[in-house]
C-alpha cells in the first residue's frame, strides 16, 4: 500500500470544507502524515494591469489592488480559524493563501512540496456550470492520487 506522508488539502472555505475535514483527519492519522492547507483566490490582475490612459476618479487600479490585499488577509484569518476548529489535532506542515488559477496553483503547490495525496471537495452543479470543476481538472492532471469528497 502507498505511504502518504504529505497530504494537500486545497480548502475552498465554503460549506463543503467542514464535510471534507474528517476525511483529511482520518487519512492524516492513518498514515501519520503532515497536512498542507492551501486556499486559492482568483487574481485581480485583469483589473490592476488594465491600461487606462487617463485613470478615472476614483483610481480603480489602486482600489482593486487594496481590495485584493484585504481579501488575502481575511482569507488567511478564516483559514487559521478553520484549522483551529476542524484540524487542531493534526500536524500542519504549511498553511498558505495564494492567488491565481485554482487548479494550476494546486498542482504547482503539490509538485513543489512533494505532496503524496490531494484531498478536496467537489463543488455543486451551479458552481461547475459557471466556473468548471477545479476538482475535475486537478484529478485529471495530478501525478499523485486525488481523493474527492462529494458536496451532497
Short description:
Helix content is 47%, strand content 20%. It is an alpha/beta fold.
Describe this structure in words.
- The protein is an alpha/beta fold and 152 residues long.
- It has one domain: HUPs (Rossmann fold, 3-Layer(aba) Sandwich).
- The protein contains 6 helices and 5 strands, in the order βαβααβαβααβ.
- The chain has helices at residues 17-30, 45-48, 60-86, 102-112, 125-131, 134-141, and strands at residues 6-10, 34-41, 92-99, 117-121, 146-149.
- The chain has a 5-stranded parallel sheet, with helices on both faces.
- Helix 4 runs parallel beside helix 6.
- The protein is globular and about 60 Å long.
- The mean pLDDT is 85.
How are the SSEs ordered, and which strands pair?
Blueprint: E1 6-10, H1 17-30, E2 34-41, H2 45-48, H3 60-86, E3 92-99, H4 102-112, E4 117-121, H5 125-131, H6 134-141, E5 146-149
Parallel strand pairs: 1-2, 1-4, 2-3, 4-5
Helix pairs in contact: 4-6
Amino acid at each position: 500500500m502507498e505511504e502518504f506522508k504529505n497530504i494537500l488539502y486545497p480548502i475552498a472555505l465554503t460549506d463543503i470544507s467542514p464535510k471534507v475535514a474528517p476525511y483529511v483527519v482520518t487519512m492524516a492519522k492513518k498514515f501519520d502524515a503532515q497536512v498542507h492547507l492551501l486556499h486559492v483566490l482568483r487574481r485581480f490582475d485583469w483589473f490592476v494591469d488594465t491600461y487606462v490612459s487617463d485613470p478615472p476618479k476614483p483610481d480603480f487600479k489602486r482600489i482593486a489592488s487594496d481590495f485584493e490585499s484585504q481579501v488575502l488577509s481575511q482569507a488567511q484569518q478564516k483559514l487559521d480559524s478553520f484549522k483551529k476548529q476542524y484540524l487542531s489535532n493534526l500536524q500542519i506542515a504549511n498553511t498558505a493563501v495564494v492567488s491565481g488559477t485554482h487548479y494550476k496553483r494546486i498542482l504547482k503547490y503539490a509538485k513543489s512540496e512533494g505532496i503524496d495525496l490531494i484531498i478536496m471537495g467537489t463543488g455543486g452543479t451551479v458552481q461547475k456550470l459557471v466556473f468548471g470543476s477545479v476538482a475535475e481538472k486537478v484529478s485529471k492532471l495530478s501525478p499523485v492520487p486525488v481523493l474527492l469528497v462529494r458536496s451532497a
